[in-house]
């Protein structure tokens, strides 16, 4: 929410505030008029919110699964995190980066190579994918890893179609690549291509049947 928002109303139910509500899964955009968005959530669920000031969008994450863009045309202004609670005695725990985020895509946890990790962080900060590609070529990490890390960078930047191209190339080289199946399945979910998302997640679960993220994402795809 912004500084002038009303604090006696739930997030999203007044001007200058936005909110994803637990009781119905709807999104509220500066008014009490609701818009269908995602699934309901409850005690034990982890909800994340990601602001992308490069493409002016906001998205939410439930238990590590990207629910897609909730709001576009974000103004370049000051925003304040706010969580609304209606139940008496309710407790919440907030994480602003002092602990590891549940949403792995936003972290560098799945990048094993330290020099690549350093370049990847620099790329995300500068929003320059071409320099990143040149750096990967100089590091000589191979075609598969180059496609993998470029796709992840594109994904974080919100360049989903470009990420999908690299992931598809990676799957042409290695059909059962779990990284590519995970990220492409998530991209298809974000882009509302549910059949394609389901196919990738199904294959991922055939490879790793206990993958918690894939199980959660599969539930979300079926809900759509």
UniProtKB/TrEMBL annotation:
Keywords: Coiled coil, Lectin, TPR repeat. Gene3D superfamilies: 2.60.120.920, Tetratricopeptide repeat domain (1.25.40.10). One of its GO terms (molecular function) is carbohydrate binding. It comes from the Eukaryota. The keyword Coiled coil applies. InterPro entries: B30.2/SPRY (IPR001870), B30.2/SPRY_sf (IPR043136), ConA-like_dom_sf (IPR013320), SPRY_dom (IPR003877), TPR-like_helical_dom_sf (IPR011990), TPR_rpt (IPR019734), Ubq-SigPath_Reg (IPR050618). SMART domains: SPRY (SM00449), TPR (SM00028). TPR repeats lie at residues 178-211. The keyword Disulfide bond does not apply. Residues 1-101 form the B30.2/SPRY domain. PROSITE patterns: B302_SPRY, TPR. Residues 157-211 form a coiled coil. PANTHER family: RAN BINDING PROTEIN 9-RELATED (PTHR12864). This is Concanavalin A-like lectin/glucanase domain-containing protein. It comes from Gigaspora rosea.
């Amino acid at each position: 929410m912004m500084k002038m928002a009303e604090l006696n109303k739930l997030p999203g139910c007044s001007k200058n505030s936005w909110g994803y509500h637990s009781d119905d899964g709807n999104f509220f955009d500066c008014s009490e008029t609701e818009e269908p968005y995602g699934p309901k959530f409850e005690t034990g669920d982890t909800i994340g919110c990601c602001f992308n000031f490069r493409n002016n969008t906001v998205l939410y994450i439930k238990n590590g699964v990207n629910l897609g863009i909730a709001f576009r045309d974000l103004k370049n202004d000051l925003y304040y995190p706010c969580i609304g609670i209606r139940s008496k005695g309710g407790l919440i725990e907030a994480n602003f980066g002092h602990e590891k985020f549940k949403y792995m895509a936003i972290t560098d946890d799945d990048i094993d190579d330290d020099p690549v990790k350093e370049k990847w962080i620099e790329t995300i900060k500068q929003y320059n994918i071409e320099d990143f590609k040149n750096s990967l070529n100089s590091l000589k990490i191979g075609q598969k890893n180059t496609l993998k890390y470029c796709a992840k960078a594109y994904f974080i930047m919100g360049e989903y179609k470009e990420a999908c191209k690299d992931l598809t190339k990676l799957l042409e080289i290695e059909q059962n690549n779990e990284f590519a199946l995970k990220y492409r399945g998530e991209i298809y979910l974000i882009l509302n291509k549910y059949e394609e998302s389901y196919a990738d997640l199904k294959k991922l679960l055939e490879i790793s049947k206990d993958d918690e993220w894939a199980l959660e994402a599969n539930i979300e795809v079926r809900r759509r």
